[in-house]
Every structure is written in structure tokens, then in C-alpha cells.
């Protein structure tokens, strides 16, 4: 069962074990179902948060809107799938490898496409990143075909107090939470993390305290790509993948970045969680792709009440 | 009103808490050239924008040819015969010069479909009159800044306006072309057109205008012919900063504030001033007693030969716009001040020194090190740090994090901690605010944080870009004592300032830059004659 996105990309609804065609879902549900939905919401929220964090980081520091971000997720998915199925590696070992790979890949993308036009207009940069998106997705499609793929592993279910979570989703949830905590701590408590936040805050002032701003750009793009890659890398644990799966996530990631406040790191994580919840619970209660409408309704509502986003600062004007 | 072609009544424009235009009532006589001068941020461009409908006014009225145009849109005002140009010339860059003129919308819908022969003839006439016919078929992006200014003037002439408002028409234009622009303006004025002109170049104002209005802090300070205006104490105050007794308390300082600055306390929400704003009294003239000589200057430390920052023949600018044209400066022990009117290029010079703006030619050395090509962050490793205008703090980071980032280049944790403590000792007010976001601080506290963050770098030379700008008068002295703190700790300071009178009290060596060139260089005590200072400052020689 697939719910169709506006841009023609699909995310399988059955991944959450519920059919959106179920008529008349009761408003009050079993505690066990409720908790299960909650777990899915946190998982999806964590993945959204990671994708949005990378996106908002690159935007905040470099003022670049990275359209290739969803494609970087796809690279993470296929890296894990290929290393597991093709090379026979343990899938959990392949996740950190994929993240490291994506960091290097991000630095290379920055070196070849963004860095040369860092002073060009934002539209030019946007179009270049869109080109990178097309190249990546097409290359993956040529290499691995557009057919859906899944990991050749058998993962069971874990039951805790009557709530049954497929193991794949549980592990993905653990990875997502860990990654959010590590990213948060890195940005908050290390000198380098502070330098990234400082550069995002005031690029001019950053150079006056001795921050090598071009180098921070490389680091940021690498980290942004690694976060997208990590979000992508956990997806094959519980879902079939295809080369276009990143698009749907990217659209929602844009919503999250604006919802949380452009360039705000905590805003991206909070926004990710909110959209994760709306997505999962909306999918449960609303027919068809009604949840997507719910996402945009919440989005519009927040922007009406606080145009700079939930955790966005006041505009500097 | 009959002899006034343009008149404003109590025109007010605010941006949030900032009162940019504070009840301006100004009458422009038919056929005159009226100059508007005033320091940075005094509200000149805002006045233009409000009069010509680009901003919606927050109070008051504008009359043009006896008609109330307050509520009209900018296009309607332009078609009614009140034209304007912008500080940065903005021709349609993809069109040719002639097409730029023809693009002007003149007579109803028909002009949108077919260009009439009269319109072509008019364009030709303007091209000839302004002597830009030879570049008529060049794309507007390919012509020089001065030619773009002429084109902008020509484009507005297509509407045959009876009054034209010019926002710095000669800024960044080379002297030869500048003379030509002025000739054209005189010629157009003789044809009967009225001009209102904002200019920082005083030689332009003195040679062109019939009357001058001086704006300061959103209000008209005085009006009259150029000589009368420039000898007015209030005008000197507007440009050189208010004369306050540095030993006086806050109330005294405010009490001395002349009426022209009455709105300051409301405008700058800086804690203590807000509570005493009621005590602001209108004393008319500010005190004029020169106190400069009575103030003991900080004696710079002379422990052995200090490294100097030496810049020779600096030429730089933005785009094809030369801002600094062959200036040589060097740092001296203590505080080296760079003064100059608005748009003289002093901030650009400072940014060039620290490496934030690349220079086109010339050389910069710090001690033995060639820093001509190095960036600002590389120069920090050489011991140079810049405090950008308005402090440039990280608003979304806490005060603690701001300070820690000041120590970004320090690898040794204990050094960083020691310096952190030193900074808090120097600025105890920051200690209570360590966990507050930078943006939550008041203007004065932000500047303090900027000083503290710069001290964290452990630099030997501090470059300060107008640290007192935008601060309440009572805080200006604090900023200068913070500057002295840096010197007491053995550093050299290069200080760019608008507050000349106050800054002179702490200066050891002075440079005056006007129109991109050096007008004066020497020890601060050579500059005690204020008349001379004013002339140098205004570039009158």
C-alpha cells in the first residue's frame, strides 16, 4: 500500500503496520497500539530530525539550500544495502562505514560544486545542488536499477510489555536517538561545534575570532552529508529502498527546517519530532495521504503564529 | 506654502524603536538647490524614502505643488513630477543606456505598447544634454559608476520632473566626472528645476547649494547657507560628537545634552538612560568650552620597541568603485585614531588593514610579517584582532560561548581559562550574564562583550570600527575607557570613530581621511584647534 506524494514519490504506509484504508479508526485506541505508534513517531521523528539538522546546518553556515540532501540519504541507503547484500558484511557494521563514506563524499561535493561558487547568487547554488541530486540519483538507478531492494537479513520482533517492535525499527530508533544526542553534544559543547554555530550566526565576526571560515564550510558540508547518510543508512533496516526514496524525505525536511526556524539546530530536531508525530498519527487516523495535508496545516499554522519558525530568532531588521 | 514646491509637515518615520525621522518640517523653495547633510544614521535617506513614497510614513504630511502626496505610491509621485535617484545607482543592467531611458513609463497604456517618436526624441535630447550619447548603445552594466549616476539622472529626467531628489550623486565618482555631473545639475537648475541633494562631500555642497539643512538623530538641527551652517555649534556637535564632561555623572551628561538630541534616550533603550529620559533639558546650544587639554591622556607603555602595523599606499574599494585611494597609515603606541566624514572610506581602510577586504595595491606589514595578502583569521595568528562595527557578537550564542570562541585559536586550555578570568575581571558586568544569549544584551553590553571576546584572542593590536556608534551618550565614555583598558594591558589600538571630540581625548596619534585620501597625520595634541579640525574633517582644507 503506497500513499502518493505530491511529487509522485511514495513512502510505504505499511511500514508502520497500519492500513490507511481502514475505515473509521476509533479515536481512543489500545494503549499498546498507542505506544507502538509513539515508538514509530519517535523513530520517524529522529530520522527527519537528522535529515533536517544536516540541511539547516548547511543553510545556516553557508546560506546554501542543498537540494542534493535527499540524494545523500539515498547514497547512505544503498551503501548499507550493497555492503550487506553484496559484500556480506554485518549491516550494523556497515552503518558507521556509510556515515564516514558520506562525510568524505560531502567534502568532495563541496570541493567540486559549492566551494567554487560560494560567492555566487543563491539561485545558482540551488541549481547546482539540484544538478548534483540528478547525477546521484541517476547513477544509483543505472548501477542498481530502480527496483525496490531490501536487506537479506532476518530480523524478528521484540516484545516489551505487550508492544511489539520489529527489530529493524528498534535498532534504527536506537541509532537515530544516539545520533541526535551525539550531534547535539558536538554542536553544544565542543570548540569546533561552537565555531560552526558561530559561523552560522555571524560569518563576518567568525573570521575576526580566527575561525577559518572556508574550512568550516567543508566541515559543515561533510557533517551535513554524514547526517543525511546516517538517516538514510538506518532505513533499509525496516523498509524497502529505491533510488527516489530521498525525495519525499527532502520535501518534509524543508518543511521541518522552516518550521523549526531557518538555521536553528535545536529547531531542526524539534521540528523533526513534531513532523514525525504528525506523520505517524495522521497516517493512522486520516484516510489516504491526509497526513501530508495535516503536516502542511501545522506548518502554515506555526508560520502564521511565529513567522520566523518555532525556535528561529527574531529577524535582524 | 505658495513659494514652496515641496513641503513636509511633522514627517515621522520609525523602525521599531528607532525614530529615523522625528517630526521633520521642511520647506523647499521653488528653483533652489537644497542640500541635506548630517552624520551617518541621521535619517537623510529615510527622509527621501518617506517623501517619495518608498516608505509609508508614521505621521505627518508631504505636500508637492500644493497637493498632499503622503499616501501616494512611489510611481504615482514620480509621474506627478517629483523624481529621485538612489545612493547606489540602479540602472536596468541588461538594457542599453538608451533602452534604460526609453523604458520609462510616460503616457498611459499606449506607451507600454509602442514607443512614440516624441519619447525617442526626448531620450536623444537627454543623451546629448548629459553627454552620454557616445555610450547610448552600451549595456548599462558596462559603464562606469559615474556614468551610471548620469544615466539614473537621465532616466528620471524622462518624466520631466519639476523637482529632483538626489541621494549622493557623486559618491564614488572620479573627480573629473564628478565635475561634469555638477555642471549638469547647475544647468538643469538654471532651467528651473528644483533639487534636493544628500551629499557627504562638503565641497559639492558648498559649491552647489543655495541652502542647507542639517539632520541629526532624525531632526533638523539647523538651516541656512553653507557658511552659516558649518559654523553652527550644533552642526559641529552632530559631526564631531557631543561635548560631554568625561568626569561628570550620568545625570550631568544627560543634562548637558542639547535639545537636538532629545530623542536619544527614547531611541536607545539602554537601561539607565531610559529611566532618566525625563531629565533631558533643552539647553539650545551645547557647551563649547574646549575641555580637550584638561584631560590627562593615557600614557602608552613603552616597553622596548613595539611592533607596528605599517600600511603603505593602500588602494581598495568595492566592485569598480574606489573607496581608498593611496593611503598610508601606521599604528603608534597607545591609541591611533582614524577620523573622517561619512563615506570617507575609514571603515573600509580598517577592514583592509585587518584583511577582511582585499586591497588592490599597496602593502601591509605587521612587524616583520607581510600581511598584505593574508585573511582576517590568518592575521589573528599574527596578533591582530578586529572589533567590527556594532560589535559583531554571536547573538544566538551565550555570552560564555562568545568569549570561548574568542579563544578559538588557543589550544592550551589553562591559557584559555586564565584569559576568561582576566576578561571577567575587566568587565564584571558580563559575569552575571554568562548564560544569557548575546542578542539579549543591551547595546552597551554587547560592545563590552565584543571587547571581551577580542581580549580573549590575546592579540597585540586591536582594530576598532566605531565602537561608540549607536550607543547612548552616557555609554560612550564607557567604551572609551574600555579602549584605554586595552592600552593599559600593553596593546596598540587603531580606532575608527565618528565621535571625534570624545575620541580625541584618548587619542595619541591621529589620521584624518576624507574622500578616500589622507588629509592630516600627526600627534593628537597638534589637533586642538577645532576650527582647523572641522575644516580638515569636512575636506575643505
Automatic annotation (TrEMBL), chain A:
Topologically, how does it sit relative to the membrane? Multi-pass membrane protein
Top-rank taxon: Archaea
Transmembrane residue ranges? 33-57, 64-83, 95-114, 126-146, 170-187, 218-238, 250-277, 284-305
Q: Which GO terms describe its biological process?
A: amino acid transport
Where is the protein situated, by its record's location annotation? Cell membrane
Signal sequence span is none
Checking CDD domains in the record gives: TM_PBP1_LivH_like
Keyword Zinc part of the UniProt annotation: no
Which controlled-vocabulary keywords does the entry list?
Answer: Amino-acid transport, Cell membrane, Membrane, Transmembrane, Transmembrane helix, Transport
| InterPro entries listed in its UniProt record | ABC_transp_permease, BCAA_transport_permease
Cellular component (GO) terms are: plasma membrane
> A GO molecular function for this record?
transmembrane transporter activity
Is Cell inner membrane given among the entry's keywords? no
- Name the PANTHER family for this protein: AMINO ACID ABC TRANSPORTER PERMEASE PROTEIN, BRANCHED-CHAIN AMINO ACID TRANSPORT SYSTEM PERMEASE PROTEIN LIVH
What family is this?
A: Belongs to the binding-protein-dependent transport system permease family. LivHM subfamily.
What is the name attached to this protein's record? Answer: Amino acid/amide ABC transporter membrane protein 1, HAAT family
Q: Can you name the source organism?
A: Natronorubrum thiooxidans
TrEMBL record, chain B:
Q: Which UniProt keywords apply?
A: Amino-acid transport, ATP-binding, Nucleotide-binding, Transport
Q: Which residues form a coiled coil?
A: none
GO molecular function terms noted in the UniProt entry: ATP binding; ATP hydrolysis activity; branched-chain amino acid transmembrane transporter activity
Cited InterPro entries: AAA+_ATPase, ABC_transporter-like_ATP-bd, ABC_transporter-like_CS, BCAA_Transport_ATP-bd_LivF, P-loop_NTPase
All copies of the ABC transporter domain together span: 6-242, 309-540
Transmembrane stretches in the record are none
Regions of compositional bias (Polar residues) in chain numbering: 294-305
Ranges for the region named Disordered are 241-306
Q: Where is the composition biased (Low complexity)?
A: 271-293
What family does the database annotate?
Belongs to the ABC transporter superfamily.
Q: Which organism is it from?
A: Natronorubrum thiooxidans
Q: What is this protein called?
A: Amino acid/amide ABC transporter ATP-binding protein 1, HAAT family /amino acid/amide ABC transporter ATP-binding protein 2, HAAT family
Q: Which GO terms describe its biological process?
A: L-amino acid transport
Source organism's superkingdom?
Answer: Archaea
Amino acid at each position: 500500500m503506497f500513499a502518493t506524494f505530491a511529487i509522485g514519490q511514495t513512502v510505504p504506509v505499511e511500514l508502520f503496520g497500519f492500513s490507511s484504508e481502514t475505515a473509521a479508526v476509533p479515536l481512543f485506541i489500545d494503549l499498546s497500539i498507542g505506544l507502538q505508534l509513539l515508538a514509530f513517531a519517535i523513530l520517524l521523528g529522529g530520522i527527519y530530525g537528522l535529515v533536517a539538522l544536516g540541511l539547516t546546518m548547511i543553510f545556516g553556515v553557508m546560506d546554501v539550500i542543498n537540494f542534493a540532501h535527499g540524494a545523500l540519504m539515498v547514497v547512505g541507503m544503498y551503501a548499507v544495502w550493497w555492503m550487506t547484500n553484496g559484500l556480506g558484511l554485518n549491516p550494523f557494521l556497515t552503518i558507521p562505514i556509510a556515515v564516514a563514506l558520506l562525510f568524505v563524499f560531502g567534502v568532495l561535493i563541496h570541493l567540486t560544486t559549492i566551494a567554487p561558487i560560494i560567492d555566487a547568487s543563491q539561485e545558482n547554488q540551488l541549481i547546482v545542488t539540484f544538478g548534483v541530486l540528478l547525477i546521484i540519483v541517476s547513477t544509483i538507478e543505472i548501477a542498481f536499477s530502480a527496483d525496490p531492494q531490501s536487506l537479506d537479513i532476518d530480523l524478528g520482533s521484540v516484545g516489551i510489555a505487550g508492544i511489539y517492535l520489529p527489530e529493524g525499527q528498534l535498532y534504527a530508533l536506537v541509532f537515530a536517538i544516539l545520533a541526535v544526542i551525539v550531534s547535539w553534544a558536538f554542536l553544544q559543547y565542543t570548540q569546533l561545534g561552537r565555531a560552526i554555530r558561530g559561523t552560522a550566526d555571524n560569518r563576518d565576526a567568525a573570521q575576526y575570532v580566527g575561525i577559518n571560515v572556508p574550512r568550516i564550510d567543508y566541515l559543515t558540508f561533510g557533517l551535513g552529508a554524514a547526517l543525511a547518510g546516517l538517516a538514510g543508512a538506518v532505513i533499509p533496516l525496516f523498509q524497502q529502498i529505491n533510488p527516489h526514496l530521498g525525495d519525499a524525505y527532502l520535501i518534509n525536511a524543508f518543511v521541518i527546517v522552516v518550521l523549526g526556524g531557518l538555521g536553528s539546530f535545536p529547531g531542526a530536531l524539534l521540528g523533526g519530532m513534531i513532523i514525525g508525530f504528525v506523520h505517524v498519527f495522521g497516517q493512522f487516523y486520516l484516510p489516504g495521504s491526509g497526513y501530508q495535508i495535516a503536516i502542511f496545516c501545522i506548518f502554515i499554522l506555526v508560520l502564521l503564529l511565529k513567522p520566523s519558525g518555532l525556535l528561529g530568532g527574531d529577524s535582524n531588521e | 506654502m505658495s513659494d514652496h514646491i515641496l513641503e513636509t509637515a511633522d514627517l515621522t518615520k520609525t523602525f521599531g524603536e528607532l525614530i529615523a525621522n522625528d517630526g521633520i518640517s521642511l520647506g523647499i523653495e521653488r528653483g533652489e538647490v537644497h542640500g541635506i547633510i548630517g552624520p551617518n544614521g541621521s535619517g537623510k535617506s529615510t527622509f527621501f524614502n518617506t517623501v517619495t513614497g518608498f516608505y509609508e510614513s508614521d505621521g505627518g504630511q508631504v505636500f508637492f505643488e500644493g497637493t498632499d502626496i503622503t499616501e501616494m505610491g512611489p510611481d504615482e509621485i514620480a509621474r506627478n513630477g517629483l523624481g529621485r535617484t538612489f545612493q547606489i545607482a540602479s540602472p536596468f543592467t541588461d538594457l542599453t543606456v538608451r533602452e534604460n531611458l526609453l523604458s520609462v513609463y510616460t503616457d498611459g497604456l499606449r506607451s507600454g505598447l509602442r514607443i512614440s517618436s516624441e519619447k525617442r526624441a526626448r531620450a536623444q535630447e537627454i543623451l546629448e544634454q548629459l553627454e552620454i550619447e557616445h555610450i547610448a548603445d552600451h549595456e548599462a552594466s558596462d559603464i562606469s559608476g559615474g556614468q551610471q549616476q548620469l544615466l539614473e539622472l537621465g532616466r528620471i529626467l524622462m518624466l520631466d520632473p519639476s523637482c529632483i531628489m538626489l541621494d549622493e550623486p557623486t559618491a564614488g565618482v572620479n573627480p573629473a566626472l564628478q565635475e561634469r555631473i555638477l555642471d549638469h545639475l547647475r544647468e538643469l537648475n538654471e532651467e528651473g528645476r528644483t533639487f534636493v541633494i544628500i551629499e557627504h562631500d562638503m565641497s559639492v555642497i558648498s559649491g552647489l547649494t543655495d541652502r542647507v539643512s542639517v539632520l541629526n538623530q532624525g531632526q533638523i538641527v539647523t538651516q541656512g547657507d553653507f557658511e552659516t551652517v558649518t559654523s553652527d555649534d550644533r552642526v559641529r556637535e552632530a559631526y564631531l560628537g557631543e561635548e560631554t564632561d568625561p568626569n561628570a555623572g550620568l545625570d550631568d551628561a544627560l543634562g548637558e545634552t542639547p535639545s537636538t538630541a532629545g530623542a536619544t534616550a527614547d531611541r536607545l533603550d539602554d537601561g539607565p538612560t531610559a529611566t532618566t529620559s525625563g531629565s533631558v533639558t533643552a539647553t539650545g546650544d551645547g557647551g563649547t568650552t574646549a575641555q580637550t587639554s584638561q584631560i590627562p591622556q593615557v600614557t602608552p607603555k613603552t616597553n622596548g620597541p613595539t611592533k607596528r602595523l605599517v600600511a603603505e599606499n593602500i588602494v581598495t574599494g568595492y566592485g569598480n568603485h574606489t573607496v581608498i585611494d593611496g593611503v598610508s597609515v601606521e599604528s603608534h603606541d597607545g591609541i591611533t585614531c582614524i577620523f573622517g566624514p561619512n563615506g570617507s572610506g575609514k571603515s573600509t581602510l580598517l577592514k583592509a588593514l585587518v584583511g577582511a577586504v582585499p586591497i588592490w595595491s599597496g602593502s601591509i606589514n605587521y612587524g616583520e610579517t607581510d600581511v598584505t595578502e593574508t585573511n582576517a583569521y590568518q592575521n589573528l595568528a599574527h596578533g591582530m584582532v578586529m572589533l567590527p562595527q556594532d560589535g559583531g557578537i554571536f547573538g544566538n550564542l551565550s555570552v560564555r560561548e562568545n568569549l570561548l570562541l574568542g579563544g578559538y585559536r588557543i589550544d592550551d586550555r589553562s591559557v584559555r581559562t586564565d584569559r576568561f578570568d582576566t576578561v571577567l575581571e575587566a568587565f564584571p558586568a558580563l559575569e552575571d550574564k554568562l548564560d544569557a544569549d548575546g542578542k539579549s544584551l543591551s547595546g552597551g553590553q554587547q560592545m563590552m562583550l565584543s571587547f571581551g571576546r577580542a581580549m580573549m584572542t590575546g592579540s597585540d593590536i586591536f582594530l576598532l570600527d566605531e565602537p561608540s556608534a549607536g550607543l547612548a551618550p552616557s555609554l560612550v565614555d564607557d567604551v572609551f575607557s574600555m579602549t584605554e583598558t586595552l592600552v593599559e594591558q600593553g596593546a596598540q589600538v587603531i580606532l575608527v570613530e565618528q565621535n571625534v571630540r570624545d575620541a580625541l581625548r584618548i587619542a595619541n596619534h591621529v589620521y584624518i581621511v576624507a574622500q578616500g585620501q589622507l588629509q592630516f597625520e600627526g600627534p593628537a595634541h597638534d589637533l586642538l584647534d577645532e576650527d582647523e579640525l572641522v575644516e580638515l574633517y569636512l575636506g575643505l582644507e
